[in-house]
């Protein structure tokens, strides 16, 4: 497929030192009646072509808000971005005018969501919804758009694509609907695909199908994939590197093998330790105590300190920076050395 | 978790078909959704039976049938030898004291306009004979303490609690009548990852303390393995495999169980490229029109002619020590969940 | 609050506590709502206003020494005078004192408004609760009946009902209004009940063995009543105005009865020359409606623990 974009953005090709997508010190706030909620507090991560970055976190950690800020689909207001950059091929998307931004959105950076049923319009056929991408962005005719839609449905392995192109979303199963969402998102050959909990609503056997499909599409087109999830299993299966988020911050950045072998942040360690293991049968599971922080009343210092077994006095007063602890690793814990040692032992 | 011999719950040939009707005035039945189609098992005192399966396999309908929230089309559910499936009125109310439930979503399962005290105390108002009136509030406070909540928060409303705490409130309500059986329908899947372990630990502690038997329905196979003594695997309204946890997880005999286990992502990236995965094609068929013979045959790599003609029964098959419903059952260690 | 387990909890045994805690005051939705209402400025101001209007309708002579039913109180010579020390709100077409008539008019207007509101809310609400909860044939029957009522144009229906009784008084007017408007309350209640009925907490209560009345009144009604309260308080103003409309058509209240509606319709023709006889009863009417809407809002909010 030929790119027809005539935008201010550099075309694809060699990147030099600049990553494909870089989020730099991003802050997102929501103005609510109860006060200003700081949902994202200085998040930085980067993605290269063909790479899979997993953003791991629980509800309220800011993982989805970050993705929405990258896509430019936050409602502003109530949201606002007081600081930070989202660089796509070196251009800060947050400073782009809206028309240039909409050339990026959906075409070069695309996104799929957890709930495919509500993301699809129930009154249009799936074929016309997939084809619309070509009609709007590429000026394709109705006939061509439908042909492209069938091709894409084949590509995401929907059986009988030619017959089913005229069906409506409710006529498909959950897994098939997620495939349709994926077909729409890859229609214009994006360079970055953001998948926000793409399999959370699906059964394990269907989840395996979808994850396999995403991996295959990624191999074919060398796109960068940001996988937002809370599932440590899925992450271990597909990710190259991981950013762990807690309370609107990144608390640990690492390559996938490093983090599972020896986590460097107490939160990551707690999550890994609380996975039931075969040899723990009949014993109490390790459980992180307490509960996730309330964004309206964040704990002082390190947001994790009320739940942390490694806590010292300075954790309550002093927010830890993201310490560089290796060429590809960082951890936002004052006592990352102790955590690392504990992980080995 | 010492399960003693006597079964306190006996389920036999349980069937639930939801009729599909057509027409408004002249209603005509044109078919049925076979949600649960001939399920049998026992549950012993103090034991945990895990039920796994994917959406549409009938596990939630099974929970409703056990709780007498739905009436079965046929079959029987006996609690301590008393039939619950056909019981009505006062008899049903009495049997219910022995079987309670913990629901999936702690945000919708608590009435937002009742205080925590009223929610946990409601079982005593419905079953007045369990606790005298003057005693109820104290009992509610004890229950709050038992599930790890502050008894002074008895006058608060559900929205003042976090998801994990709300699930504790739901568990306290389930404990109030001192049942012998608790049906847990996906009790942790709506909770944050860091909270799930807390609730699992609580459920295990309560089981030891009160000698409870659990039916633990979940889709997270590693959690089911951790908590269950025995596990049943359901597919399209049928139990396709039933055995001890080690038998199901280490020596699964039914192809569906093998596919299910192999599809679970393992939280360890080492060796992920070499891991064996059985990826099933397509989706489960509709329970309104299930395949003849073996229901799994349309997605099964072992299927032969006999599978379409003859329904495989859930029984112990040659080479295996536990029951499976496959003509070609063969144990195969897929993966360690 | 700590989410970890208190050591005491481990010691606690079913039925035999290690340390019996002291039970605090038992809270309930209604007692908490009342506790909360007494602190809301919105509730206090609306309650004071409603109180004044109620006293006005029961003891009008406390507010004025003029008796508007006494023919001698009206002097044609004084017709359409402006505001003065003798006539605070001026006089109307017949030279009667507008202030005294407005005070005495409160009784009929408020009785019609409040009674019709309460009757429609109770009848429509109760039937809606039963129909929504039971479903099936009961629901079908009630729903078809309300559809018949919806099909009748309301003015025509009221004319018909009042024509049957031949007399227009407070009671027949209320009857006509109530008969024609309960289906709306029914509809709203039924829809809210159907939504509430399928909630997990209702399923949980059923699993405990809760009886149908307990499910309806303890679980479903408190979660379904808010829209009915809102619509009822808005309707209240509509009823007072509708009474005026019927009076204008000559089938409602008739002179020498006094009501705000009658006063407004009487004063309309000469409104440009003498606005007072229309404006003052209209002002009182608006204040009454406002007070009840504020009351409804306050009660609705107080019944929602999330807004407290």
UniProtKB/TrEMBL annotation, chain A:
Pfam families: ABC_tran (PF00005), oligo_HPY (PF08352)
GO MF term set: ATP binding; ATP hydrolysis activity
Ribonucleoprotein is among the record's keywords: no
GO cellular component terms, A-Z: plasma membrane
Membrane association type: Peripheral membrane protein
Localization: Cell membrane
Domain ABC transporter intervals: 21-272
Keywords, sorted A to Z: ATP-binding, Cell membrane, Membrane, Nucleotide-binding, Transport
GO BP terms, alphabetized: peptide transport
Domain of life (superkingdom): Bacteria
NCBIfam families recorded: oligo_HPY
PANTHER family, per the entry: DIPEPTIDE TRANSPORT ATP-BINDING PROTEIN DPPD, OLIGOPEPTIDE TRANSPORT ATP-BINDING PROTEIN APPD
Similarity comment: family membership: Belongs to the ABC transporter superfamily.
Protein name (database record): Oligopeptide transport system ATP-binding protein
Species per Swiss-Prot/TrEMBL record: Streptosporangium canum
Lineage: Bacteria, Bacillati, Actinomycetota, Actinomycetes, Streptosporangiales
Automatic annotation (TrEMBL), chain B:
Keyword Transport in annotation: yes
UniProt-listed PROSITE patterns: ABC_TRANSPORTER_1, ABC_TRANSPORTER_2
Keywords carried by this UniProt record: ATP-binding, Nucleotide-binding, Transport
InterPro entries: AAA+_ATPase, ABC_transp_ATP-bind, ABC_transporter-like_ATP-bd, ABC_transporter-like_CS, Oligopep_ABC_C, P-loop_NTPase
CDD domains assigned: ABC_NikE_OppD_transporters
GO molecular function per UniProt: ATP binding; ATP hydrolysis activity
SUPFAM superfamilies: P-loop containing nucleoside triphosphate hydrolases
Keyword Transport: yes
Transmembrane regions: none
Domain ABC transporter: 9-261
Gene Ontology process terms (BP): peptide transport; transmembrane transport
Similarity field: Belongs to the ABC transporter superfamily.
Protein name in the entry: Peptide ABC transporter ATP-binding protein
Organism phylogeny: Bacteria, Bacillati, Actinomycetota, Actinomycetes, Streptosporangiales
Automatic annotation (TrEMBL), chain C:
Annotated membrane topology: Multi-pass membrane protein
GO cellular component: plasma membrane
TM segment ranges: 42-63, 110-133, 145-165, 171-189, 224-253, 278-299
Signal peptide per UniProt: none
Keywords: Cell membrane, Membrane, Transmembrane, Transmembrane helix, Transport
PROSITE patterns assigned to the protein according to its UniProt record, in alphabetical order: ABC_TM1
Keyword Transport in annotation: yes
Basic residues bias locations: 10-19
GO biological process, one term: transmembrane transport
This protein's record includes keyword Signal: no
Location of the protein in the cell: Cell membrane
Main location: membrane
Region named Disordered: 1-26
Pfam families: BPD_transp_1, OppC_N
Domain ABC transmembrane type-1 stretches: 106-296
InterPro entries (alphabetical): BP-dependent_transpt_permease, MetI-like, MetI-like_sf, OppC_N
UniProt family annotation: Belongs to the binding-protein-dependent transport system permease family.
Protein name per its UniProtKB record: Peptide ABC transporter permease
